[in-house]
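Researcher: Final request for today, and then I'll write up notes for the group meeting. The sequence and the SMILES for NAP follow.
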Amino acid sequence: MMRRVLVSAATGTIGRATMQLLAGDAAAGTLELLGAARSAKSADTLRLQGFTPVAFDYDAPETLLPALEGVDTVFLITGYTVDMLIHSKRLLDAAKAAGVRHIVHLGALAADDTPHAHFGWHQLIERTIESMGFDFTHLRPNFFMDTVWAGFRHRPDRIVHFVGDRVVSWVSSQDIAAVAAEALRRPDQHKGKTYPLAVEALPVSQIAALFSQVTQTDVQYRPRPAGDLLPSLLRQGMEPVYAAGLAEGVAAIEAGHLPLAGAVYDNIAPIVGRPPVKWRDFILQRLATDPLTPRGQ
Ligand SMILES: NC(=O)c1ccc[n+]([C@@H]2O[C@H](COP(=O)([O-])OP(=O)(O)OC[C@H]3O[C@@H](n4cnc5c(N)ncnc54)[C@H](OP(=O)(O)O)[C@@H]3O)[C@@H](O)[C@H]2O)c1
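Model: Predicted protein-NAP complex:
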């Protein structure tokens, strides 16, 4: 029987990229691919991309069991909110009831004994997945390159960040999605594994310099104190408990107190069969595929 795979947060950064990578497998009939959609708009977005949406809203728990019926493997992705905890629990309870075997979880890179909130919450979810008896693959990416790109698209003259001059490590959504897609295609080869994902360690000043070189324009790094991050996140509408946890973690990085903040790993190429994407190529690829939309234009 064909294996059924459900990608949660399928319209988000990592979920969308994973759906795209699995589209060929679905077309070839090697797996049945479902994309979670919490609204009619998200379902339409997935349909327009050629995918099969399934109604799935973490805040409407009654939608979860029907979405998970007959599913073998789930990509568990939650958003930037403390509700990640209850959302994950609801998904895992429904997945257990539905007989799901394997959970691939999108977490975040930190030491196992991290005291910082949102990293710790991801690790609590990992432990819950394990203790509930699921087969598991834990993905632990460090900073997404995509977040810097998202800011640059709208303000191509500068990059703002809150980690000062610290060297931190980065990974692109396409590499995270490529590892996720492999784990979803061949869960038995990746069960029991935890994959830290970070391919290049650079201070943000050097990333701005790379943007300048590649675009042949002046792109400046505008460091801001880590203490400015919380008010900035709250202004952007981020849920306050998560925002405080994130800001506290970034302050620890700025102070040099987060042990793996600059760690890199060479595990992506052996999993996906190609080298990972480093900053220079990431910028070139994005410039070619994702037009700039400077504010005010
Ligand atoms: N950014 C980083 O540098 C970084 C680094 C390490 C780890 N992470 C982790 O990455 C994760 C976020 O992934 P992402 O950036 O791909 O997320 P994202 O782009 O913000 O996408 C969020 C997704 O969640 C969906 N969603 C929101 N509320 C929902 C609900 N109530 N029910 C069902 N779906 C809902 C959204 O659907 P709609 O489209 O319908 O809104 C969207 O598909 C977080 O766990 C974070 O800790 C991020």
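Model: Residues 9, 11-15, 36, 38-39, 42, 56-59, 77-80, 84, 106, 108, 141, 143-144, 147 surround NAP (CB under 6 Å). The longest helix spans residues 13-27.
Researcher: Thanks, that's everything.
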